[in-house]
Amino acid sequence: MRITKVYTRTGDKGTTRLVGGQKIAKDHLRIECYGTVDELNSVVGLARAFNKDEGVAEATELDEILHTIQDRLFDIGSILASPPGEESDAMKSMLGDEVEALESLMDTCQAKLKPLKEFILPGGGKVGAFLHQARTVCRRAERLCVRLNKEEPVPEEVLRYINRLSDVFFVLSRWIALSQNEDETLWRRHKG
Were both Cys, which of 25, 129, 157, 174 would link to 95 (CB 3.0–4.6 Å)? Predict the structure, then answer.
């Protein structure tokens, strides 16, 4: 792919094009879906940027994990930017394997964590806080994709990956907080 200009002037009237050239309104739910996936990718980028400042061995491992996630989010954006039925079969099948990898990653990280007895508040240091933000943006992306799936088909692999990914961000936020000796703040229930 070669991008020679960032602006095209084709979107000035509120439309854009999907992969393959189909014109679509910029406020279409499909655009909202892949725009939110793009927003999620940006939050993951912030987590990676702050993670580079950390001096723990797990920071390198986390950076590799997050880089792979960013690559997959671009794949998902490409799938969502394709008209229904025209998505790449290779990308969809790859996501199925990636779901299993996410589950394995969570199992490995959780083996090092104490079980939760209370809910925790988002935080756990700068990197952990950005991972919590990624979790919430991921959940919004999932809700939008589920809504789109009621109108137009969204590949099952995309829905499964995004669902699992929000759980991954939660586990990674706890894992990196532990690695960096950051405190997790427990929710204090109102005693009213």
Answer: 157
pLDDT by residue (tens digit) across 65-100? 999 999 999 999 999 998 887 766 666 667 778 999
- Tell me whether residue 164 is in a domain: yes
The total number of structural domains in the chain stands at 1
Taking only the tens place, the pLDDT of each residue in 171-187 is: 999 999 988 888 888 78
Residue 63's pLDDT band (boundaries 50, 70, 90)? very high
Q: Specify if 1 maps to a domain.
A: no
Q: CA dihedral in degrees (100, 103, 104, 109; nearest 10)?
A: 160
**What residues contact residue 80 under an 8 Å CB cut-off, 6+ apart?**
30, 33, 34, 37, 145, 154, 158
The range of the structural domain enclosing residue 91 comes to 20-113+120-179
For residue 186, being part of any structural domain is answered with no
For residue 191, tell me if it sits in a domain: no
